[in-house]
């Protein structure tokens, strides 16, 4: 008798994982906690195959993007260089428990079914889950995408019957937008700060010391108004 195929099902949030378990699991559900995350298991027939379904969840995005530590200091490079500087991917600090849970479950799984929201953002999160799980499983997981619009039994059963491959184009669109936002935001923020900070030296002092430097005196007020006028003239150049 062939062994059961072990299927790891990953939902976008714990509430979705609970509904999947409730509608598909029936009376044979076993529940446990792993790395602070809820995990449920039950037998199920998927794609004509007797399977052991394992259901868990993420909490939105797992992976963040940032510049390397060598670029953390604002004096380490010009703002313009941030448009071409290499970027690093990393597990978000508040997702370390989810990362450990997925890796542990992936090592025991044969298939991976992604129950993320059916939009671009959900597809991007799906590929983050794929990266984490395939790394732990050595790339051997067979990956499927569940497409659903409601958390009813009928919709979830229909999703199980119409599994498809995840769409990398949707994930790439989100990745591109995220990278552009980060590069433009970081470069512009550094440029603005480095350009205008010397014009407002009082802003570099702690707020509770402003009265000592004259910022809260009539003379300080006049100086502040002069600085604002200078700023307005500068941005109009």
TrEMBL record:
Tagged with keyword DNA-binding: yes
Pfam families: Toprim
InterPro entries in the record: Topo_IA, Topo_IA_2, Topo_IA_cen_sub1, Topo_IA_core_domain, TOPRIM_dom, TOPRIM_TopoIII
CDD domains referenced in this protein's UniProt entry, alphabetically: TOPRIM_TopoIA_TopoIII
EC number assigned by the record: 5.6.2.1
Family annotation (PROSITE patterns): TOPRIM
Enzyme class, UniProt record, top EC level: isomerase
Highest rank taxon of the organism: Eukaryota
Ranges where the Toprim domain occurs: 6-149
Keyword list, A-Z: DNA-binding, Isomerase, Topoisomerase
Catalytic activity: ATP-independent breakage of single-stranded DNA, followed by passage and rejoining
Family note: Belongs to the type IA topoisomerase family.
Function statement: Introduces a single-strand break via transesterification at a target site in duplex DNA. Releases the supercoiling and torsional tension of DNA introduced during the DNA replication and transcription by transiently cleaving and rejoining one strand of the DNA duplex. The scissile phosphodiester is attacked by the catalytic tyrosine of the enzyme, resulting in the formation of a DNA-(5'-phosphotyrosyl)-enzyme intermediate and the expulsion of a 3'-OH DNA strand.
Protein name (database record): DNA topoisomerase
Organism for this UniProt entry: Prorocentrum cordatum
